[in-house]
Write a structure and sequence with these properties.
The structure holds two protein chains of two kinds.
Chain A lengths: L5 H4 L10 H43 L2 H4 L3 E2 L13 E2 L2 H32 L2 H16 L2 H27 L3 H6 L10 H25 L3 H9 L4 H30 L2 H6 L17 H8 L5 H40 L1
Antiparallel strand pairs in A: 1-2
Helix pairs in contact in A: 2-13, 4-8, 4-10, 5-8, 6-8, 8-10, 9-10, 10-13, 12-13
Chain B lengths: L24 H36 L5 H5 L14 H33 L3 H14 L3 H16 L4 H25 L3 H9 L4 H12 L1 H16 L3 H6 L18 H9 L4 H36 L1
Classes of the chains: A mainly alpha, B mainly alpha.
Chain lengths: ~350, ~300
């Protein structure tokens, strides 16, 4: 192409098709990109394959009991010949993960939706960016730093608060068992839930913000023109439109909370128990892996990998459903806006 | 709507009261309360950020100094003193290794999604699974690299940590880069193709440079997140007390892993070192984050 001389141009139609080497280079580059894209699928498949393979012995040994039993006895307490054997039941940790995540959502969801509404509906244009930046910075703080802060500052500081709540509500029938006697370190379900709430607020906020952003301006204007106050406009026009997306955002937050490892390894207290008392200590699946990894070997280590497999399955399902919900909601919104 | 029977019209001579005063007190109060609640939510989220940063600075500033940044670590947690140099070096090389793996692959993956795949079924499922993959817990990535790499080569190295962090970064880089590539105007591509440039040269010399600032800031954000990851590191990298600048030779450690170790200790000396390491790590991470924001802010300005 480049060497076509000007003199002949008039007489000959120039060949504008690509030649051999160019075609080859194009193919190679395309292949490279497809390969990089496929890497995502490959890694996900490999995660499942190699962790399941490693944990297989413990799954064979425990069967369904791995996720339905509450006894976690990684070492032989009375030697290899004693009556007690090693047992690997992780239900306690599943309970800890679910309860702490639920507490985290309980605190984080209203706050996150409030922030998202503030940014999209209330704040003057000038301060939207700074507020968004502050929330994003919250996501930038490493989780181990939250853990350090939680174990050395927040936990001890909350003990008097827990104590007074217990004194206040301890004798009420049902509430009494939920607000039980606090542990002295302050490390437990409630502290774990609070730290989780801080850590998942940024992601719930940012997805909610996107979802609120897709509400058609016309509908908001219509609500305001009918005489609605701003809050009535939000309730009547914004919420109904964004419900599906919000559900997705909350589920994404749940996925994050379930996978949070290091902060919980520090602030959860590390007990193996299923209790209603939110001020007692417990443990979560990922936290157990991080805590016991260094001292584990053999089947104990395989059991820890097994916890990872269960955790992987749970988070993948939650995240997949969440993304599906958000995507569906966004597609519907775009349809409504057009 | 316009064809509907006309709405009741106020009697002539009197205009309806459209000011806020006509809204009932209850509705006005509810509206005001909702606004206040929103502002409170923002403050409630900003509070922990302020508290964490303040505490880390207050408790960490006392111990962070030249010695802390350059000395080897003490083996006995009870002893005072000692530095974090091995952890700082480890954080830098492990994160850099992860970035060298994940950023090029992630950008190429994004190029596939935006330039070749577009709405094809394969591209759509990759996009979906990349989103799902961002939600895979970091500890699972650590277990993956442990079972697929550390067990196989039978050696803990910084490189294993780099692999685990790269797996965490990959989907983030893919998705953020794709968003950026989508913003590159089609006219640029068409102009380049019309001048006779093949597809790959168009992408390498026109599309990617046009998106460079956005790609840089997205990658920096992913790097900042990876630098603070702990769980994959403690599963795959091991521990060292002396400076080890090698990714492939010998065990290593990072600031995040050191914070975790020291936070669980009951010795005040260890806790102090934990705060010092936290201050160092937060400084590094926030520096990366702020640089990323500045770059993307400038890019947005330019685009406007």
């Amino acid at each position: 192409m480049a060497d076509a001389s000007g003199g002949e141009a008039g007489a000959r139609v120039r060949d504008l098709t690509a030649r051999g080497r160019t075609v080859l280079a194009d193919r190679m580059f395309r292949l490279l990109c497809v390969g990089a894209g496929l890497l995502v699928l490959v890694v996900l498949a490999l995660i499942l394959l190699s962790t399941v393979r490693e944990a297989w012995p413990v799954f064979r040994l425990e069967g369904i009991g791995f996720i339905t039993d509450t006894t976690w006895r990684p070492n032989d307490p009375d030697g290899p010949d004693g009556p007690l054997t090693r047992e690997f039941g992780v239900l306690t940790f599943i309970y800890g993960t679910l309860v702490s995540s639920a507490l985290g959502l309980l605190f984080a969801v209203p706050v996150s939706i409030g922030i998202a509404l503030f940014i999209t509906e209330l704040a003057p244009q000038r301060i939207r960016r700074p507020v968004t930046t502050v929330i994003d910075l919250l996501a930038a703080i490493p989780s181990v730093v939250f853990g350090l802060w939680g174990i050395l500052v927040v936990g001890p500081a909350l003990v008097p608060v827990y104590q007074s709540l217990h004194d206040l509500l301890g004798d009420v029938p049902v509430l009494g068992s939920v607000f039980g006697v606090p542990v002295t370190s302050g490390r437990g379900f409630m502290t774990a839930g609070l730290i989780l709430a801080i850590m998942i607020t940024p992601i719930i906020t940012s997805i909610s913000r996107e979802v609120f952003g897709t509400v058609p301006q016309d509908e908001k204007n219509a609500a305001l023109a009918l005489g609605a106050t701003r809050w009535e406009m939000i309730r009547g026009a914004v919420f109904p439109h964004s419900f599906g997306g919000l559900v997705g955002a909350v589920m994404l937050g749940l996925g994050r909370a379930m996978g949070e490892t290091i902060a919980l390894a520090l602030v959860f207290g590390g007990s193996v128990q299923i209790v209603a008392n939110m001020f007692a200590s417990g443990n979560a699946m990922p936290a157990v892996i991080a805590q016991q990894w260094g001292e584990s070997s053999g089947i104990h280590r395989e059991a820890l990998v097994g916890i990872g497999v269960v955790l992987f399955a749970m988070t993948i399902i939650v995240n997949y459903l969440a993304r599906l919900t958000v995507r569906r909601a966004e597609v519907r919104m775009r349809g409504a806006a057009a | 709507m316009s064809a509907a029977p006309s709405p009741p019209i106020a009697p002539p001579g009197r205009t309806p009261d459209l000011t806020e005063a006509s809204v009932s007190l209850r509705r006005r109060l509810v509206d005001r309360a909702a606004s206040v609640a929103m502002v409170l939510a923002v403050l409630l989220a900003a509070l922990p950020l302020g508290l964490v940063v303040y505490t880390v600075i207050e408790r960490g500033a006392g111990i962070v100094g030249f010695d802390f940044l350059t000395e080897d670590m003490v083996r006995n947690a009870r002893r005072a003193g000692g530095g974090m140099a091995p952890a700082i070096a480890g954080t830098l090389i492990i994160t850099a290794g992860a970035a060298l793996i994940a950023v090029p692959l992630g950008i190429l993956g994004a190029v596939y999604l935006n330039e070749y795949g577009k709405e094809r079924p394969l591209a759509r499922s990759i996009r979906m699974l990349a989103d799902v993959m961002t939600g895979v817990p970091s500890v699972v990535m650590g277990l993956f690299i442990y079972t697929a790499w550390v067990v196989v080569v039978d050696e803990r190295t910084g490189f294993a940590g780099s692999l685990a962090l790269a797996c965490l970064m990959l989907p983030i880089v893919v998705r953020s880069s794709e968003e950026i590539l989508r913003l590159v105007p089609d006219e640029l591509r068409q102009a380049s193709l019309a001048l006779g440039a093949p597809r790959w040269r168009t992408i390498v010399t026109v599309v990617l440079p046009a998106a460079s600032s956005g790609l840089t800031s997205g990658s920096l954000l992913a790097i900042a997140r990876a630098a603070g990851e702990t769980a994959p590191i403690i599963l795959t990298v091991g521990i060292t007390f002396n400076l080890n600048w090698s990714l492939f030779d010998g065990e290593n450690t990072t600031l995040a892993a050191q914070i975790f170790d020291n936070a669980g200790s009951s010795f005040a000396t260890a806790q102090e070192r934990g705060w010092g390491a936290a201050l160092t790590l937060v400084t590094i991470v926030l520096l990366f984050t702020i640089i990323a924001r500045l770059i993307s802010g400038r890019a947005a300005m330019k685009a406007r």
